[in-house]
Amino acid sequence: MKGLASFVFGVIACLQTVLAGGFKPFRFCQLGDIQIGFGLDGWQNDTYRMHLAAQQVNAQEFDFCIAVGDLTNDRFSYEIQAFQDTFPEFEPKIHLLPGNHDISNVATLKQFSVDYNVSDHGAFSQNGYRFIMLDSITLISNLTEFEGYTRAEWQWFEAELQSAAAQGEEIIVAHHHLPFEFTEDEPDSYWTFPNRVRGQYLKLINKYNVHHILVGHRHETKNIYPTDNSFTIYVVAGTARFFDTNGFGINYFNVASSDSATGVSQEYVHLQGVTHMKRSLGLPNGCPDIFAH
Ligand SMILES: *[C@@H]1O[C@H](CO)[C@@H](O)[C@H](O)[C@H]1NC(C)=O
Ligand SMILES: *[C@@H]1O[C@H](CO)[C@@H](O)[C@H](O)[C@H]1NC(C)=O
Ligand SMILES: *[C@@H]1O[C@H](CO)[C@@H](O)[C@H](O)[C@H]1NC(C)=O
């Protein structure tokens, strides 16, 4: 039976490739803030929900997933240990991004790579798409100690965009902070890129025809659009805490064609098996500050 099922799936996958003109469709997922230690029902329950997310992801045929930062809340050793112990449960490759709770200075920037065995930013290609994963902490911070990292990351981002464009790849960008929440010209807030760098970022997004941006940080689940609707910012709350009424969940993406403007579809799916859905009673406080005042 299993053999027959995989044969049928194989034939369907092959047909899809033919119908898409040689393009091989793929699927990926967006995990929000895993942030072990932030849930109101305790870090063990955050860890349990991470485990549920792994089970849910494994039951799908994703080529990979991207976790959009804030892996733990406080970087306490027991939180990092819980993350490291649960992470291998995910079967597909999970690309990890940092959030402001992971990195807030150069020491924690270096520690991030030690704790998770990954760079704070990076890029990879999949079936004609280039995924650019940015460290939005160093990108948008004006802390003096980040200066060299900030400059290097902007240069790297632009070089990566150029190289993807030169190779005819469609581009999808992911990072922790929201570029903006409601309108491109809104004032600075805790959640978003400050105006100091927002325009520079949006210019690149437009220049390189980026249509999809994956973010976390907000602990809400929604899609945000610019005035001209040229791209979508996908925000997903994650598995530790949500501030809206959309609960815990995962964004599923299906990439059906080599045109990212029309070929990418998204579906929000609630986290399955959750018995405790504790809601935040207010905004977080005491979060690591990545700006110089
Ligand atoms: C954490 O989850 C467990 C198992 O679902 C549950 O029994 C417990 O009450 C939860 N803790 C809190 C503080 O809600
Ligand atoms: C760290 O990452 C490298 C390259 O992805 C991998 O080969 C290695 O096994 C990883 N080490 C650990 C301890 O996971
Ligand atoms: C750094 O950026 C923050 C937020 O964008 C701003 O409030 C602050 O004035 C800036 N500080 C310096 C020293 O430029």
Task: Explain what this protein looks like in three dimensions.
With 293 residues, this protein is an alpha/beta fold. It has one domain (2-270): Purple Acid Phosphatase, chain A, domain 2 (4-Layer Sandwich). It is built from eight helices and eleven strands. The strands form two sheets. It has a six-stranded mixed beta sheet, with helices on one face. It has a five-stranded mixed beta sheet with strand order 3-2-1-10-11. Helix 3 (77-86) links the parallel strand 2 and strand 3 (93-96). The longest helix has 20 residues, at 147-166. The termini are far apart. The relative contact order is 0.17. It binds 2-acetamido-2-deoxy-beta-D-glucopyranose (NAG) (3 copies). One 2-acetamido-2-deoxy-beta-D-glucopyranose is lined by residues 41-42, 45, 275-276.
Bound molecules: 2-acetamido-2-deoxy-beta-D-glucopyranose
User: What portion of residues belong to β-strands?
Assistant: 15-25%
Shape: globular
| CATH fold name | Purple Acid Phosphatase, chain A, domain 2
Q: Tally the helices.
A: 8
Question: What's the pLDDT, averaged over the residues?
Answer: 93
Q: Write down the secondary-structure element order.
A: HEHEHEHEEHHEHEEEEHE
Tag the structure with descriptive keywords.
293 residues, five-stranded mixed sheet, six-stranded mixed sheet, 11 strands, 33% helix, 8 helices, Purple Acid Phosphatase, chain A, domain 2
Write the topology of this structure.
Layout: H1 2-19, E1 26-31, H2 43-58, E2 64-67, H3 77-86, E3 93-96, H4 106-116, E4 122-126, E5 129-133, H5 136-140, H6 147-166, E6 170-174, H7 195-207, E7 212-215, E8 222-224, E9 232-235, E10 249-255, H8 260-263, E11 264-270
Parallel strand pairs: 1-2, 2-3, 5-6, 6-7, 7-9
Antiparallel strand pairs: 1-10, 4-5, 8-9, 10-11
The structure holds 2-acetamido-2-deoxy-beta-D-glucopyranose (3 copies).
One 2-acetamido-2-deoxy-beta-D-glucopyranose binds near residues 42, 275 and 276.
